[in-house]
Structure formats: structure tokens, C-alpha cells
């Protein structure tokens, strides 16, 4: 992640970096930390809290010092940094080739998805020209609706901190659509990117000790999705192709709002039932938003405290 930070330091002005650098570092380190610590649980159907606490107890006590490996999400986040630097901005062909090169030299523990090999092979056969159209042809023309765009979006979101909102949205969607063109995937990446952008900007403005108002943040994120124009990513689909996906995300965010506002904290079963915990972006990104907001307050069953 140091390489990503160096690249983005060159992109942003010194004044912005001097104010935001520790929050930017925290975003990158938090992403790779969560990725590497989550990888051992990734292929399990159920993950009881006791297993997670046992995992961290062993790590913090020094009983387990084995190497943790990051997955394809961090690999691709790094690839975004490298490509943005090399191309001095977004280049679909360069980013697709960067992703592909990393995949074909990756060790098994990167845990890439099963369909990605054929996708990169098809892109390579076309010399990585117009890769998004190849990605859009996946799954009978629907494109991938997985959470991968959101999982790797930190690099692009930070690179675009200074951009106008329309240009920021375009960057996020362009980067995502290289492999994920379904509107659910695009909205998932946008939700994650705007949440990151807003929290970093507020942190730099008010300092790391300020309290995030969950209600205001959620309201702002709804506006961010409402103002995003996905018409350029139709890839031959009807002009209203994204309407249903947009409504699905609004419904999930509404559930996040209700969970945050209620006096009794919902159970894990309730959260999973309403928000999901699957691979589709709509079952992962809103859940991640809820967990972030919930963890701003101490949780009695988790004996670790994090100061934001």
C-alpha cells in the first residue's frame, strides 16, 4: 500500500495531502488489513463471532504469527494505483491489462473469482481494446453484479478526491466497468466511494476526533446515488436499465437507517436477513456501511476498541 500512497501523493496537492495523509493512510491500511484478516474466513458458509474473536486473540497475543495474505481485492486496488499513474488518469485498456497481468502471475491465495480467467483471456485476445464491452457480455449480457468494484475502489476514490462530483462518478464507474458492468455493481462502487470520500473530507476538515452523524451521512449518500448518471454504461441495454438497481440500493440504505435509529441494536440474523452478506454488491456494500456506522459506538461483545 505504500506504493499507492506515494502515487496518490503525486496526484493531490501538498496542502491536501498534509491535511489528509493520515486519513488516506488509514483508508488504505484499513482496506488491506480487513482483506488479509478476512481472507481466512472467506470460503466459509458461516463465521461465528467466537471464531473471529479467537482469531484476533491469537494474533494480538502473539500465539499466531503466521503470514496473512491479501486477496485479489487488494491486488486490484494496487493495480488501479499503478495504472492511474502510468496513464496519468483512467485508461480502460491499461487498467484491464494491469488486472490481467496480475491475475496470471498471482499465487493461489489471492482467491480470484471463478469467471475472471475467461474474462481476461477474452480481453487479451482483443489486445485489451474496449474491455468494458467484453465485461458487459458476461452472464448473458447482464454483466457482473458482484461486490468487486466496491472492494477495490479505495484507490480510485482517493485519486479523485479533488474532482467535481460528476467527474468523480465517471472515474468510479469507469474503473468498475472494466470488470463489473451491472448497475448493481456500479451503484455499489459509487456508494462505497462516496462514503469514503465524505468521511475523509470531514475528518480532514474537523479532525479525527469529530463524531460522524450517521443520519446526515446516510442522507448525503442517498443524494450521491440519486445524482449519479449511469446512462453511459448501458452497453445496449434499455435506457432505464439502472432504475431497478437504484431502487434496490435505496431500500437497503433505508434499512440501514432504520437499524441505526432503533434503540435496540439488531441481531446478526436480522442484519443478514434485511441487508444480506453475499457476493452481490447490493448484499455486501450496504451491509459494510451499516457495520461501519454501528462500530462507531462500543460493542460490548467485542473486547477491542478502535479510535477513529
TrEMBL record:
<keyword id="KW-0460">Magnesium</keyword>
<feature type="binding site">
    <location>
        <position position="71"/>
    </location>
    <ligand>
        <name>Mg(2+)</name>
    </ligand>
</feature>
<feature type="binding site">
    <location>
        <position position="72"/>
    </location>
    <ligand>
        <name>Mg(2+)</name>
    </ligand>
</feature>
<dbReference type="InterPro" id="IPR036705">
    <property type="entry name" value="Ribosyl_crysJ1_sf"/>
</dbReference>
<keyword id="KW-0378">Hydrolase</keyword>
<comment type="similarity">
    <text>Belongs to the ADP-ribosylglycohydrolase family.</text>
</comment>
<protein>
    <recommendedName>
        <fullName>ADP-ribosylhydrolase ARH3</fullName>
        <ecNumber>3.2.1.143</ecNumber>
    </recommendedName>
</protein>
<dbReference type="InterPro" id="IPR050792">
    <property type="entry name" value="ADP-ribosylglycohydrolase"/>
</dbReference>
<dbReference type="GO" id="GO:0046872">
    <property type="term" value="F:metal ion binding"/>
</dbReference>
<dbReference type="Pfam" id="PF03747">
    <property type="entry name" value="ADP_ribosyl_GH"/>
</dbReference>
<keyword id="KW-0479">Metal-binding</keyword>
<dbReference type="InterPro" id="IPR005502">
    <property type="entry name" value="Ribosyl_crysJ1"/>
</dbReference>
<feature type="binding site">
    <location>
        <position position="73"/>
    </location>
    <ligand>
        <name>Mg(2+)</name>
    </ligand>
</feature>
<dbReference type="GO" id="GO:0004649">
    <property type="term" value="F:poly(ADP-ribose) glycohydrolase activity"/>
</dbReference>
